[in-house]
Amino acid sequence: MTPERPAGAAAHPRTSRPPKRARFPGGQEPKRQTGSGEKGLYAALDLGTNSCRMLIARPKGAQFEVVDSFSRAVELGTGLESTGRLGHGPMARTVQALRICRRKLDDHSVSNMRLVATEACRRARNSAEFIRKIQRETGLRLEIIPAEEEARLAVISCAPLVASETEQLLVIDIGGGSTELVWIDLADVPHEDRRRAILAVKLGLRSETLNPRAKGAARVVDWISVPLGVATLREQFTDVEDDAARFALMSWHFEEQLHDFSPYQNPAPRDGFQIIGTSGTVTTVAASYLGLRRYDRNKVDGLRMTSAQIDKVIRDYLALGPEGRRSDPRIGRERHGLIMSGAAILQALMRVWPTDVMSVADRGLREGLLYAQMTRDGVLTRL
After folding, report:
1. Looking at domain 150-365, does it have CATH number 3.30.830.10?
2. How much is the average pLDDT of 11-36?
3. For the chain, does the N or the C end have fewer beta carbons within 10 angstroms?
């Protein structure tokens, strides 16, 4: 598959929604309401290629406070590369996980929610059927969002990490089935408004004549969704036995997908340039750099790393080999099988855009969904 292009350059996958009328076992579908005020709870669910994750939170100042969360590796995309369809086993695991999510939503009486599915469901031929199955068996109505929306929400989630001196921003989101890159020009935005400007970012046409720059607003220079994530990239190179050779091939193969991304052709400036990386790969590399035997979000989220520091961690992973990575507590049991494909993507990006600092974001689509809902309802104070 080729990388997704901005609207106007290629068609986006259609959003697949289940019928409006359905029977919900164990009660009615959770209500969707807006404008619940400061005390209202919000939920965001992200069904990806590898994981099913949900956050339930309440607004608190310019941020939000997490009330409950859920995360499970359902491996929904297993076999998708070869068959083009979601398998029965992965779908069954996912429905089980979503039943737990439904119970949590009911227990907390959540009235504001957005529940989305991403790359695996965008690509699978039987995804519409699966979405109907989810609604029928759990009462949850998921929407399959296009890559454009996934990229926008990843950017929104990173707004609190944008430095006031940043003029050129690259946000990278390495997922299970795809990787999103968004390049944003903040040079015309006053320093004190740059974080808030990120919340208003919209992705669309590349042409300045069709998508003019609003005065004092963030400008999206370009964005791309590469249909290669940690799971899909790994599946494409399972026939390569040598660990180091497989890693090198994955990294160069990913870089080949970036040629149509306009900033790929231009060297990045050092001054005023910031990369924010959000994904399990990036946070795992950060945890390894810190030597954390037990993951600590407070130490990882917002950490700054240089290209050289990232490269050293990746070289350490290669030196460990498959068995060493499997037993390394910094990587973890759920991540060891995916870390090298993710590291291959990350190394390719650092090779193209070496930086003195990459900000690590332990946040992503779920946080973006929450910020977007709360911003819409006006329940957050200014960033």
Report:
1. no
2. 40
3. N
